[in-house]
Amino acid sequence: MDIRTFGSLAEPARVVELARAAEAAGWEAVFLWDHLAFAWGVPSADPWVLLGAVAQATARVRLGPAVTPLPRRRPAVVASAVAALDRLSGGRVTLGVGAGGVPAEFAAFGEPHPARMRAEMLDEALDLLAALWRGEQVAHAGPHYTADGVTLAPVPLQRPRVPVWVGGGSRAAQRRAARWDGWVINGDDARGRMTRDPDALAAGIARIHGIRRSRAGGRPGRDAPFDVALTGVTAGPGDGTCARYAAAGVTWWLEHLSEQRAPFGRLLARVEAGPPGRRG
Description:
9 helices, 38% helix
């Protein structure tokens, strides 16, 4: 599941209720949006507080933000928060990241938001996160961030680090995702209508795998399985929509829950009915 924590779904108790229902019904993951939507007039909740509550309310589902805009968060704080969440959840965290697609969430607080700068900050922050999670002393002096001989403790339970999924539909996002563990992309609009063409998605997935194959040496774990997570909507367990995307290479179906799609009661009923299919 992918919960858009805006409006009525900014209420923490409702998110926890959906997460509990998801685990009971056999869903495999609970991801939350990370936006400062209140900056443009829409109630929104802090995903990290909610993810801690979800970790305590569940025992099996994977969890994380989908996605957190690293350029408006301090990498050292994110590294520590993810480590704490991973330990609290027993090693169930997947970190979804992006460059941040809503300029108002930067501009409203006087933060820089040019697209190129955000992309640079994202890449540098990711490398810094990975270094900190190794638990070794980190000395980093980059154009945007500094770490002056620091060692993160405690580190995440997952080794060598938590999985990182990169969000975004651009070629640049695909190239960035190829360096890490997965690609997460929206497949639907705010009203719950599927907008992502399976053939076009398959082409993007093939492009990412081609990049991964072409890179010699490089990052540990590059030959490990690569995930593709797609947000979407289904009517119930018998809905075959996600099967078309699985055939295109999608490995995780993230049922998108938002108040634009339906009132809370109907969203909860959809969760309780169970997933349309398992991973892969």
